[in-house]
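FAQ
Q: What does a multi-component entry look like?
A: The components come first, one per line:
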Amino acid sequence: MTSLYQREAQSISTLAHLRFYPLALTGGTGARLIADDGRELLDFAASWGAASLGHSDPRIRAAVDRALSNQAGASYLSSANAATVQLAEKLLSLVPSRAAGRIWFGHSGSDANETVARTVVAATGRPRIISFSGAYHGGTTGSAAVSGHPSQVIPKAPGLTLVPYPNSYAEGDQAAEKALAELDRLLEGPVPPREVAAFFIEPIQSDGGMLVPPAGFFTEIERRCRKYGILIVSDEVKVGLGRTGQLHAFSHHSIEPDIVVFGKGLGGGLPISAVAGPEAIMNFAPAFAFQTLHGNPVCAAAALAVLKAIETGQLAENAAKVGAHLLSRLQTLKQGHPLIGDVRGQGLAIGVELVTDRATRKPAKRETAMTAYRAFEYGLVLFYVGVNSNVLEFTPPLTLTHEEADRGVEMLDMALTDVEQGKVDPSQASAFAGW
Ligand code: PLP
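Then the predicted structure of the entire assembly, as tokens:
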């Protein structure tokens, strides 16, 4: 444990900590991080996908520098500023026409999803919301209230109904059919569809375990939503903006959400989120959902630089290419490691599910924590997710190279071997077990 980590323990609350090992950073460039002890680490997490262009990206630095050299206030609450207007115009040009009404800006995926949840209910007069079991839409009271992740002990919204997210690894080919049957059962009985304002979806359920839904599943969801006038809210916070190999993760499913939520990678490491939606919803009432620093022009300038870099640097294409390479390397790794039960993902949103037994698929929670810990010791930053905390999550910078992908796989290979051979002390990891 480094001295920085120990000093932190004496000064900073643990309330916001979700730690897997004693990671303490002093700097970074691209996908390379510098640890407090001087070690170079390869970043396969990108701060949960937030550092979408990697670290110290010159395009973001230049944009932030310009914005701070002639600062147009600090907020859009009580004044317009050019950066947020420009960013709103840009986002409106990128979303499907249904969502291309108005843009709201916040700081985080949490405040954005909370705002959507409050606004759709107020604007439509419909009291209910549907979301998926295992979904993580945020950590504020209002966003957790419409989430289904078991790690959250915050009370749920009174009008919330959770439906199963199809898990093809656990349930095989029937997964989508079973989830849809349960949805239909609810809509035909206890959850009158005309009372449902919105259905929150994740095109890949990331914190729930990097679950990639079967083809056609979301088309069926869309069909039901259109039939009953239920708004589709696509939470693109973690896997949107290029990460899956397309600009929007929902595009893989050929659906058109009514509301699109952006966060994390939008600011490339600076705090900004955005919601795109129909005017009738987004202009429901003034002064309805705001915080002082919302619409901050410095963060908006960073987001504009990120969107430009994604476009001009063809970063969605890079995520598709390098992601396919990484996925195939991980699939090969599976052959030599009995701990690996499943490898899945799209682009640079990848999950590796660890199990104690491939036949029973019993989650290898302890071994997952140990693998992440050992990988860190080898120099790889990798976190894990899942309702059973047994899915290693890969959300590296969109700029990741083939060589970096290969280097990360080599470190993971060594970490898995050590865990499988009993060379890792479980107490090291259990002291940090995050979720
Ligand atoms: N939505 C999704 C899909 C997420 O993965 C997260 C965070 O993990 C959030 C929303 C909340 O974002 P934030 O933690 O930035 O508030």
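Q: Is there any commentary attached?
A: Sometimes. For this entry: The pocket of pyridoxal-5'-phosphate is lined by residues 48, 108-110, 113, 136-139, 202, 206-207, 235, 237-238, 263-264 (CB under 6 Å).
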